[in-house]
Amino acid sequence: MKALKYTICIVAVSFGLHSCTKNFESLNTNPVGIEQIDPAYQLTKIQTGLSGDREDVWKYDLGIASPLIQHLGGAWWTRHGGMYQILEKNHWYSHWETVYARELTNLQDIINKTSADPEMVNMNAACRILRVYIFSRLTDMYGDIPYFDAVKGYPNRIYRPKYDKQEDIYQDFFKELQESVNQLNQSKEKVQGDLFYNGDVSKWKRFANSLHLRLGFRLTKVNQAEAKKQVEQALSSGVMSSNQDICMMKHMNISYRDDELRGNGRSQVFKNEPISGGFRLVRTLVDYMKNVHDPRLHIYGGTYLGDGIIGMSSNITDISKFIEPLGVAPGAMAWSQWGDYGNITDDKGNSIFVGHNLKFLQPSIYVSALDAPFFHFTYAEVEFLKAEAAARGWAGLSNSEEHFLKGIQASCEMMKFYPDAPSISQPEIDQLKIGFLPFPTDFEQRMDHIHSQMWVNFFLNGAEAYANYRRTGYPKLVHFTSVDWYTSGTGGIMPRRFFYPESEAIQNKQNLEEALARIGGQNDWLKRVWWDK
């Protein structure tokens, strides 16, 4: 009987296997699924993710880069950048693990799918430009990174990409940007799914050339001749010429949910807990702006009473008009800066008490709105870089003062993009400009003016402010040593790079070790990237 049972089972299985292999392909195809994702949908997802991912921007920017550059402080996690401490090491490599797996993988897929389609040349070119933009932020943060072989596990089966030298990566950036600009074609299909420029090819060209300009200046400390060459090439190709060319993500008024990236990620962090989650503007920024009568200060920050969510809770009172703007000390916690402000008087003659924790500027109702835009690249930055080019005598530019003042004008005017923000009057802008006149003739004094204003312009874009500071040394920041009972984790030396992910030591050990050997053998945050030598 056992033999008979086994025979019946074998026959039944054999028959079943034969049945399963018949029409195998049709049986294993999902009739309601999709075989290929629409590149337009992928591009939209990429663009929203770059500034809409609450967890990512909280870790690498609001907790590290912005405190490093003394824009933000006061919150528990700003100790990473504000005090040069390691509370959770994975915060230092969250951006790496996010964009390689998501944005860069999707971009490479679009590039692969559109490379042979003559009607999709604009989509292909725009994604190549965006790829340079994302990789430039990665290499500026980490140094040598996987680049040429990156995100090629499928279809090229490269699972352990080598770490390329930053110098080689930058040269490819310039090639990619130039080729992409030449590839963009007004007569072909516009870039679908594009939230930055609505498919406008001419604006993508100006963005690419402006990015080329930024990256060209990155080389001034290591190779001035090459920097000059790249800067002049970018300027001759046509950069941004007005605030209409700004590359920004116009977010929507949507609160955070898993994988919901349409709301502004930074604003989602500020609104995650009462009193802006402890985030405050740092005294370095506040005092600099206050001393030059900068009208952007009350767009960036506000003073609020009430234990609630700014812009959402009914118990919040804006007292910004009745109290002097104050910033928290670099590296300090908002709640640890003891000393109540005391009583103030509002416009109705009421006396209002302001305690120690609420006396400091919080991110304002304007910049913390869920539908606040994120500025990836501004026309103001272009004018400030032109001011530096003129100071160096590059590209036939000579009037550094003119471009510097244009940068201030553009930066003030772009505040109108923040929802419900009050307009800045021309007399207010003119008063700010007058504070920098007469414009200095000394090169270093010019650089101080130019890049201190660049630093102000980069508020809430900590990663770029951090990169520009490492290149120029401006503004002259006093590095953190101690405050209250907290001390620096580095003896007062500012970190110069982010940590490589610890997972790389397991998954890509040989290539990681080769990269580490080029910076002394250790995953050291005090070592400088190539262009920061």
Helix content: 40-55%
The count of β-strands is 14
User: Approximately how much beta-strand content do the residues carry?
Assistant: 5-15%
Return the average pLDDT rounded to an integer.
93
Overall outline: globular
The CATH class name of the domain at 39-196 and 491-532 reads: Mainly Alpha
Determine the structural class based on helices, strands and strand pairing: mainly alpha
Q: Can you summarize the main beta sheet?
A: 2 strands, antiparallel
The gyration radius over C-alpha positions equals: 26 Å
The CATH topology annotation of the domain at 39-196 and 491-532 reads as Serine Threonine Protein Phosphatase 5, Tetratricopeptide repeat
Straight-line distance between termini: 83 Å
Main β-sheet, spatial strand arrangement = 1-5
Task: Please give a quick description of this structure.
The protein is mostly helical and 533 residues long. The protein has helices at 2-21, 24-27, 39-52, 54-68, 79-82, 94-114, 121-142, 166-183, 201-217, 224-237, 265-270, 283-291, 297-300, 379-392, 400-413, 426-434, 443-457, 462-472, 504-507, 509-517, and strands at residues 72-73, 145-146, 163-164, 247-249, 280-281, 301-302, 304-305, 317-318, 342-345, 351-354, 362-363, 374-377, 482-483, 486-487. It contains 20 helices and 14 strands.
Distinctive features:
TPR-like_helical_dom_sf, two-stranded antiparallel ribbon, two-stranded antiparallel sheet, 533 residues, SusD-like_2, SusD-like starch-binding protein associating with outer membrane, disordered N terminus, 14 strands, 20 helices, single chain, 7% strand, mainly alpha, Serine Threonine Protein Phosphatase 5, Tetratricopeptide repeat
